[in-house]
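Now read this:
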Amino acid sequence: MAGLAARSYHAPVNSIDSRTRCPWCLGSEAYIAYHDEEWGMPLHDERMLFELLILEGAQAGLAWSTILNKRDNYRRAFDNFDARKLARYSDKKVARLLADAGIVRNRLKIAAAIQNAQAYLAVQKEFGSFDRYIWSFVGGRPMQNRRRRMNGVPARTPESDAMSKDLQRRGFKFVGSTICYAYMQATGMVNDHLLGCFRHAQVQVQR
C-alpha cells in the first residue's frame, strides 16, 4: 500500500461496534478487520515480514484492497511465501503464475518476487534474521507517532528513504521509499494509527 496518506478513503460502512477507527479502513469489513487485527502491530515473524514485503510491492500502482482481496490466492500461488521455494521458481512456474487470475499477473512484479526472495535469503544469512535487519532502520523499536489527521501522515520519511536505498543496493525490487513507508506502517515499525483511533493506544502498549 502506498502509505496511509495515500490510501483511498471510502464512505463508512456499518461495523460491529462504535469504536473510532482510522478513516481509511471504513470502506469494507475486510479493511476493518485488517486494521483492527494486523495493521500497525509490531511484527517479527520472518515469514510474515517476507509476505508483506512481497505484497506491498505487488500493490504498487493499485489499491491495497485489490491485494487484500487476493491475499489467500497469493499464499496459494507463492507456496505460502516460502522464500526458499520462491527463490527457485523456474520459467515454467512463472508461466503458470502469469496465467493465474487469482493474483496480479504482472511479469515484472512476479520476477521481482523471485529476486526479492533471493535477496531476502542473502540478508538472513548475513544478519542471522531478516527481522534483525529490517527493524534496524528504526533502532529495533516502533516509532510512536501522534498524528491527529490523515493529511498529517507522510508518504515517506528519512527512515523509509534509508530502508529503500539499502534494500535496492541489496538487489530488492519494488521497494521505493513510499512502498517502504507503507511496509513500516503495516509491520508496526511505526505507529500511524491516528490518536483518535482505539488501536493507537493498544499498539503503543504492544511494542
Strands lie at 143-144, 190-191.
